[in-house]
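Suppose a classmate hands you a notebook page containing two proteins, each written out with its sequence and a corresponding row of structure tokens. How would you begin to make sense of it? This section walks through that situation. The first entry is reproduced here exactly as it would appear on such a page.
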Amino acid sequence: MARDLRVNTLKDASGNNSVATSVVANGSAKAWAKCSADGTSITDSFNITSLADTGTALQTLTIASDMANTNYAGLATSIDSTCILIVDSHATGTYRLVSRNNAGTLTDAITQSALMGDLA
């Protein structure tokens, strides 16, 4: 039988370091992924079902549990210090990453991304 656990505040085992559950729900990444430079594999992820290499420096990720709307924040970076990585476009169920080198040329890179917002 399923039950709900309803609380307003979470605390550590000692009863210290309290945080409101709204902070946990609103302040946590709803999806994240680290992907290979060639766009063919996901190294690790949360709430991501697949990755598509849609061209040089273009990766489209599919979100398992959709976002509530397209007003979420997409954050992206690369471990390659010469790359600029952006969340180029996003829908409730997918988002696309684009990576460029310092000269502005599209270039494949290892990508790391996270989404902040509300789930559907």
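The notebook's second entry, a different protein, reads as follows.
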Amino acid sequence: MSGNKFCVLFVCTGNICRSPTAEAIFRKLATDAGMAVAVTADSAGTHGYHVGEPPDPRAQKAAAKRGYDLSALRARKFEPADFHKLKLMMSYARRFADEEVPDPYYGGPQGFERVLDMLEDAARGLLESLRKGPGP
């Protein structure tokens, strides 16, 4: 990486399942890769249903089993100031062909595990893309 500073914002509907999970995964991967100083990560929701609330307890529990701490995160709504270059998270995935990360909110524990699998894969791809530097 060539001294660039990257800001990454993960967005889902309510900011209590998918986007805070993506944020926590990405922060840990960036830290483990020695890139924590070069990368800032945050998350937000497209709707303000849960503003100020912590991530869903099921998301926190599933993430904690894999070493990700979501406990300090609080839901917020996406704001116009957040708007920059947009790209779907799953476009960075290597093992999954899905375009979207499914919302696990109304399902069982297996949904949260699948979200973690998908986001770990895509976060690794995103981090590798940032290492290579800005591109098209």
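A careful reader of the second entry would note: The chain has three helices and two strands.
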